[in-house]
């Protein structure tokens, strides 16, 4: 047996062991749990080809090198916290206008360090956006605060490029949804008193707005689950939206019908997936330690899955950005994945969209999004009279990373439109 063949054999054996862990973790899900083991073992053979030429040690070093070289997710602002209705602490950060890019890192970075690269990346990402917004907004009291809500299994850091583009020009708030990022685990979920619902996330957003943006106009930006959170806010607090919100961006999201999404699977497997997935995830969440070991052992396999469902053209994505997406998703524990998943099947906020009828809206989708398909965004845009629908060619679910310049351009345009709305609606002076 050659060295390469031996490496491949070991790779398959290791992944098969991990697959067994997944199957054992899902034993309470019966056939569905066993099916996960079979799928994982089969997928192990698929990644073995790569392992013929690239050893595990080299792949690990490559991941560490990408983590060290990429400045993505390193931008930080003034921290704050809001308390949700069940006592859960929700973490947020504020970037104030007028602060120069990289100011937070000044005096703390050496030339060529990760922080220094992060600061330079901010400047590159901003391009002309900062000057453009400052020319429009100046220091007007009517300039809105832009509040970003991230998606499922992500964190506020997923908005890295948009944060960089707006930084210093307009006040922004970035928060982590409950059980994600730096926010605390949901108290109601830990003690089993309340399941996760999209309505609950909408009330969480209201708590963050009350704490971080107690006054002034607001532009809401939501991606995927974050977009659903923005819809849930409107559903439960329509008067607040009418009084305070002057613009909304719904990116790669859906107002409902998620139980019909095929996820790129063959038609025969779609119904089975939707039927079995909640139970399987619940069983896996109950055996989180075993599952997390399986995730680590099959890191290459999951990296491939993440790329497929995150990006429309994975081969063209910068390896550093692809690795950044992996880190964001890997950071979400399997029991949190399981807690949130059932909420999507019953999500329906179509009627709530009426609350955003009178404000400028951006509805943006990736053409090849397998999780919240582009036709869901088209449906949303058709219901919003002032919506601009943008479909990013060839992009997938993490469109704000994959087509960052397009998304940045569209967000800056939205802030400009929203600022005009805020000025025109401001009461005239006596």
Kindly state the percentage of residues in helix: 40-55%
Quickly count the domains.
2
Quickly name the level 1 CATH class of the largest domain.
Answer: Alpha Beta
Distance N to C terminus: 89 Å
| Main sheet characteristics | 8 strands, mixed
Average pLDDT over all residues: 79
Number of strands: 8
Order of strands, main sheet, comes to: 1-2-4-3-5-6-7-8
CATH topology of the largest domain: Rossmann fold
- The poorly predicted ranges are 7-16, 18-56, 102-110
* Helix segment tally: 18
- Report the CATH architecture of the largest domain: 3-Layer(aba) Sandwich
Q: How many whole angstroms does the radius of gyration measure?
A: 22 Å
The H/E string reads HHHEEHHEHEHHEHHEHHHHHEHEHH
The proportion of strand residues reads: 5-15%
Summing up helix and strand content along with how strands pair, one would put the structural category as alpha/beta
CATH homologous group name of the largest domain: Alpha/Beta hydrolase fold, catalytic domain
Shape: globular
Protein name: Alpha/beta hydrolase
Pfam family, one: Abhydrolase_6
InterPro entries: AB_hydrolase, AB_hydrolase_1, AB_hydrolase_fold
Keywords: Hydrolase, Membrane, Transmembrane, Transmembrane helix
């Amino acid at each position: 047996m050659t060295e390469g063949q031996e490496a491949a054999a070991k790779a398959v054996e290791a992944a098969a062991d991990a697959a067994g862990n997944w199957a054992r973790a899902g034993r309470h899900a019966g056939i569905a749990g066993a099916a996960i083991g079979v799928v994982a073992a089969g997928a192990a053979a698929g990644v073995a080809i790569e392992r013929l030429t690239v050893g595990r040690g080299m792949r690990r070093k490559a991941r560490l090198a990408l983590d060290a070289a990429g400045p993505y997710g390193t931008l930080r602002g003034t921290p704050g916290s809001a308390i949700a209705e069940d006592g859960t602490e929700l973490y947020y950060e504020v970037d104030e206008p007028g602060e120069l890019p990289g100011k937070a890192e000044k005096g703390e970075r050496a030339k060529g360090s990760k922080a220094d690269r992060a600061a330079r990346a901010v400047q590159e990402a901003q391009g002309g956006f900062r000057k453009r917004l400052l020319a429009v907004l100046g220091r007007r009291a009517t300039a809105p605060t832009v509040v970003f809500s991230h998606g499922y299994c992500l964190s506020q850091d997923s908005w890295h490029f948009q944060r960089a583009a707006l930084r210093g020009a307009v006040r922004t708030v970035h928060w982590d949804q409950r059980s994600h990022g730096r926010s605390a685990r949901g108290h109601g979920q830990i003690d089993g008193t309340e399941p996760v619902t999209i309505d609950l996330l909408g009330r969480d957003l209201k708590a963050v707005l009350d704490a971080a943006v107690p006054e002034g106009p607001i532009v809401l930006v939501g991606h995927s689950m974050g977009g659903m959170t923005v819809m849930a806010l409107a559903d439960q607090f329509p008067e607040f939206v009418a009084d305070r919100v002057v613009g909304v961006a719904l990116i790669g999201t859906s107002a409902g019908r998620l139980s019909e999404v095929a996820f790129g699977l063959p038609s025969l497997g779609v119904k089975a997936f939707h039927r079995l997935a909640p139970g399987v995830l619940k069983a896996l969440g109950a055996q989180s330690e075993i599952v997390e070991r399986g995730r680590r052992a099959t890191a290459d396999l999951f990296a491939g899955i993440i790329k497929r469902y995150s990006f429309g053209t994975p081969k063209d994505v910068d390896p550093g950005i692809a690795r950044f997406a992996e880190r964001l998703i890997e950071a979400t524990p399997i029991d949190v994945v399981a807690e949130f998943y059932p909420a999507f099947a019953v999500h329906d906020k179509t009627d709530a969209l009426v609350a955003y009828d009178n404000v400028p809206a951006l509805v943006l989708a990736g053409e090849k999004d397998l999780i919240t398909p582009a036709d869901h965004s088209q449906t949303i845009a058709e219901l919003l009279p002032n919506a601009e629908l943008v479909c990013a060619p060839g992009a997938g679910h993490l469109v704000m990373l994959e087509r960052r310049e397009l998304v940045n351009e569209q967000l800056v345009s939205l802030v400009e439109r929203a600022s005009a709305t805020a000025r025109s609606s401001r009461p005239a002076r006596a």
